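Risk register update: the risk of archive-format incompatibility is retired. Evidence:
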Amino acid sequence: LRGGTREVGANCEKTDKLPGVPERSYVHQVIASQFDQNTAYVCFNHHRYGDFKPYLLKTTDGGKSWQSIAATLPERGSVYSVAEDHVDRNLLFCGTEFGVFFSPDGGENWVQLKSGLPTVAVRDIEIQRRENDLVLATFGRGFYVLDDYSPLRQVKGGTLDKAAEILPVKDAWMFIPNMPLGLRDKGHMGSSYYAAPNPPAGAVFTYWLKEDIKTLKAKRQEEEKAKADKKETVYYPDMEALRKEDEQPEPYLLFTIRDASGDVVRHLKTDASKGLKRIVWDFRYNTPAPVTSRYTPAPDQLFGDSEKGHLAIPGTYSVSISKFEDGELSQIAGPVNFTAKSLNNATLAATDQKAYLDFCKKAARLRKSVSAISQIHGELSTQLGQYQQAMLDMPAPPQEALKKSYEIKKQLNQLSLQLFGDGTRARREFETAPNINDRVGLLLYGMWNSTSAPTQTYEESYRIAVKQFNPLLDALKAVSRDLDALGSQLEQNGAPSTPGRWPERL
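Archived output:
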């Protein structure tokens, strides 16, 4: 290693016999500190001699003396690159044979960054200062970018000793992602068209969980392994303990986003595994779609989209973390406030943000209600079909029951016209009048992906749909009562069981 001087063109001095570094080691990288002219970092590589230990040194006196800062790096894993944060002099990054690590305390402790990065040699590191992005060049696996690593600057002192922590949240820019090719991803451009996915749009929450939230089974297996390692006897658990393990629900973390008034905007669920991790809120409220029929397109399906809630508006929000364990939901971190800002690239953005949000909330409530009666209509139709089959197998004359079922079927058909439209006309290519689901679909299609105020057409569609809803709800409740009465008649006549119909006491 040659030590430089502060004079351009002056002679360099050779520095050898560095602490802990074998002779004939490659000098893989040297960087000077951005904060102190006497501070520098150097990484050595000795793998040509079968030595894969990490050699990473630091000087604070212009190269007169060097100290190893590789203390907590894995014993096996050559160091190829090192980088220093441009804001926090103690935040360091190093690329090794098996991944990238960061140190929040100048090299005293190192933590591996793994999410999305394969086990690969990281040969070079650069920092994009404007966005605080960490850019990695790997050996044979391409480039990787860690977007906005600035939360790592807050990993100080006792942060990693806490059970859970939400690091400060960067101001989030709100926008609706563009699709320049007309469809998601690469559209119809084909496999030869290269495009890397963008990071998900939304507010990014970086959080720390010190330990896994383990199930009873995981704890038992851990204890059994420890005993086995010590050559102690491991006994088979009793049935009651196994039953508790089988019945225990899986623990998880629940992120709660609230607006400035404290009202819940969104819940985000994720696994309760330990580590420094991230989760993204997409600026949307919880979806009003029924839980039993939510559509999620396949990865290669370019048309359609998964069920989403409506957009939130710019403002101040907060996020907190709760853990669900053994039926109890308890807060373990937060709340942490953050700001969502509009990117201001909309052509006809709503001037009254509150009115926009109020209309979206009304549309979401309407969607929930109309979806509910549509689903109930389908369930009643299915139930009626099961009753009609059971009538033919009961040990009693079916005439009266069949007549009642026929009348109920006519009522359901009439309600179907109002809910789903005239299928008879549609199948024969005749125009049909809008039904209540058409009107709700128009609202969601127009408002869920727009920051513009509702048009007069949307407001009129909402008004008509609300006017149609209550009569439909009352009519379906009446049909449900008629079906319950028919079910009681079938039970009295000894008809075979059907889903949802209670048997009489024996």
